[in-house]
Sequence to fold (148 residues):
Amino acid sequence: MDDGSQEQRGGERQLFLPLSGGGGQIELPLRPPVPAPISVRAPERRAFRVLKGEGKRRDERLKERGDVVRLLTAAAADLLLRRITPARAHELEVRVERVMGLFDRIGQLGGTDKKGPEGAEARALKERLERELRSLDALWRESDARRR
Fold:
């Protein structure tokens, strides 16, 4: 049985494959692949971009959820790079969980602007949250000082 033959026709190569059962053959043109057209070139990028910070240091105190998440992310990176011990990372994680729980509770109560017992509870939680944030910030700065 013939496995197939190739033939040149009109500048194109053709592949002929016989069909089983003697029912003829399939003719397939063999063309080189056509490269996809390039639509748009990406603009050249500079390696670095200078941000104007006016020489002022960013306020890095912990005030909101995003700051606490940033701290936890930095602690995870420091743990992976072995800049802090697993025990220190665990302590930071425990305190972050506590702080995030306080943020959640204050949010569930509707914030500290409410009047009545819910407002009083939210204000008390806000004070506790501020103490926890200061404590977490102190622990982080102590870890930061040890790394340097």
